[in-house]
Amino acid sequence: MLRPMDIEQLKGNKSRYAIVIGVAKRAREITDKANDESTILIEKPVSLAITDLLSGDYKIMMGSED
C-alpha cells in the first residue's frame, strides 16, 4: 500500500497525479510482461512498481509545457 510518506519520497518536483499515473503505467508493464512470459506474480504489480520507483530503476519523465 502506498503510504503518504512514500508519495512524498517519490514526489520530488512532480505532482501526485504524475506519481499515480507513473505507478499505474509501470504496474501495467509488469503485468503485461508476466502475462507474456506466463509467470505468476507473488507480489502485486502496484507494489512492484512502487519499489521500482523508490529504487530508481524506473523514472517518471515529465514533458515540457512549452
How would you describe this structure to a colleague?
This protein is mainly alpha-helical and 66 residues long. The protein has one domain. Helix content is 61%, strand content 0%. The protein has three helices and no strands. Helix 2 packs across helix 3. It is elongated. The model has no long low-confidence stretch (mean pLDDT 80).
Structure, briefly:
With 66 residues, this protein is mostly helical.
Keywords for this structure?
66 residues, mainly alpha, 61% helix
Termini separation (Å)?
Answer: 35 Å
Main beta-sheet strand count, sense and barrel state: none
- Provide the gyration radius in Å: 13 Å
Structural class estimated from helices and strands? mainly alpha
Mean model confidence by pLDDT: 80
Low-pLDDT sequence parts: none
Strand content is under 5%
Indicate the topology.
Blueprint lengths: L3 H8 L4 H21 L8 H11 L11
